[in-house]
Amino acid sequence: MSLENWEQNLNTYWIKYAGKIGSRDKMYRFIQYFAKMTHFQLKQSGAPAETVKWLNHVSKTFSTGRKFIRIGKFIDNWYKAYKHLCKHAMSLSSEKDLVNVLTLMSYVADMIFYLWDALVWAEAAKIWAFPGMKCKLRRTQWNMYRYSIKALKDFLKLRTLKAGTVEYYSTRRIMCKSMIDVCNPLQGLGYNDLNAGQIGAMGVLTSCISIYDDFNK
């Protein structure tokens, strides 16, 4: 590939991709979980304390930064839910109808998750405190709900799609991503005993799946 073609592809794909808020969130997510995974491994191996501390700082900084850029995203999901409700009749008479209902539920779950996510950021940034609301717990619970709903929705959606199509492979990838991602909030709620290194590795894997899917739709 010539330098001219390489520059053209870079401008066409990565620069335009990185210009989207959702895309930047995915790339920041990759860095966050890669730092989390590396931090755990180096800490276990007795690496220099300064390096371990720096990686932990990187992971937490990107986690907080992602919450900031997602402020207001719950409004986007509210609008998606509204549009979906206007477009589709809510019925349970067929698998496609059930997929439509679960799609609506996933938008609502995303909306509520991002609302709690914004409140957690506000508390972390010491802008506002919400005593007694247990924002982190509620955020973790709705993170579990939304990934569970998405995994079930995509599993049922696969049954309605023609095997071998682009949509089929994309849906299968995202279903696998949701099934892996749900392990994170389950760990936060005490339903499994995964360590930080394992959670970090899963986050790296699902971030790669998500970015790869964006380029292969």
Structure in words:
The chain is mainly α. It is 79% helix and 0% strand. The protein has nine helices and no strands. The protein has helices spanning 3-18, 21-44, 49-69, 73-87, 95-124, 135-158, 166-181, 183-188, 196-215. Helix 2 packs antiparallel against helix 3 and helix 4 (73-87) runs antiparallel to helix 5. The radius of gyration is 19 Å and the shape is globular. The model has no long low-confidence stretch (mean pLDDT 91).
Offer a quick outline of the entry.
With 217 residues, this protein is mostly helical. It has helices at 3-18, 21-44, 49-69, 73-87, 95-124, 135-158, 166-181, 183-188, 196-215.
Residue share in β-strands: under 5%
Order of helices and strands: HHHHHHHHH
Report the principal-axis shape. Answer: globular
Name the average pLDDT. 91
Give the % helix: over 70%
- Individual helix count: 9
Please specify the SSE layout and strand pairing.
Layout: H1 3-18, H2 21-44, H3 49-69, H4 73-87, H5 95-124, H6 135-158, H7 166-181, H8 183-188, H9 196-215
Helix pairs in contact: 2-3, 2-9, 4-5, 5-6, 6-7, 7-9
From the structure above, extract its key features.
9 helices, 217 residues
